[in-house]
């Protein structure tokens, strides 16, 4: 049977038959801008027509995919550039790019995209675990590969996402090392004269993330009303510092404790004195926690020159700054505060995230349930 042709510039869709003459699918063909004939395939005529229209539209924009020859490495590069860049936070993009470049492409990059199988994917995870990578890192690899292959399915380049059939390794529990209440008090006593004392108070009292603290501006703080608005986070990217939306994509309002208000008032006075000392060298960015000249503060400098020496001076474990956020949540939950309020304070996207992270704390809390039943009945 003659191929069914379409108008000039619309490509051609025709039936695919097996040796017995039975229709097993449909194929669309078109000429790309480079003059080469290219093909798409679908199970139904409608699907083939849709894929053909999409492929021709991509070709008009300079995006030509030859699914038969396209390798995993080539597709990952195109996926990162066309689908990921500028659609996620810069640090998220850099994380996907690093995982692709360091872990996925060396192992799977030369394999044809259409020939990738669950065996390949499973072998990658096993090899990375045997090489000493943590299960959490391998899960990041799985997430990256799964997202890329899912986009390839949507683009009609492959019929299924082979990563969907492979289980990623179960991560160990989150590495949470909160301070006790007594340790927290001791830390703040030792840190009282430190330049970033108010930052530690906000981390412990309000549970702010590191980037949220370093991206905080005075315009976000209402000391009279005792509130603070989390509107941005400071990210350290390969091209320098960048202000971005908070992790959940939206801000939140926080009621400040009395001690947090006092610490911020004192911090503002100290900052004004610094400003006068450096004079014209001061760069006014309205930051609450800048460098001594008003510019954005590098997290590594904050940790190495301030936070870690204070922990050592106080005789406390070598925790991360992020563990002050965990300390805040743990103290509140142990005090019996509802997880929903803790979720809103921390800015988690859903309460399930809060419950998952702090399940070990909640499990230790019987909440006086037995006593309540005795009293009620």
TrEMBL record:
GO biological process: DNA integration; DNA recombination
GO molecular function, one term: DNA binding
Residue intervals of the Tyr recombinase domain: 174-374
The keyword Lyase appears for this protein: no
Residue span, Core-binding (CB) domain: 70-153
Keywords (A to Z) from UniProt: DNA integration, DNA recombination, DNA-binding
Tree of life domain: Bacteria
InterPro entries: CB, DNA_brk_join_enz, Integrase-like_cat_sf, Integrase_catalytic, Integrase_recombinase_N, Integrase_SAM-like_N, Tyrosine_recombinase_XerCD
PANTHER family (alphabetical): INTA PROTEIN, PHAGE INTEGRASE-RELATED
Protein name: Phage integrase
Source organism of this protein record: Rubrobacter xylanophilus (strain DSM 9941 / JCM 11954 / NBRC 16129 / PRD-1)
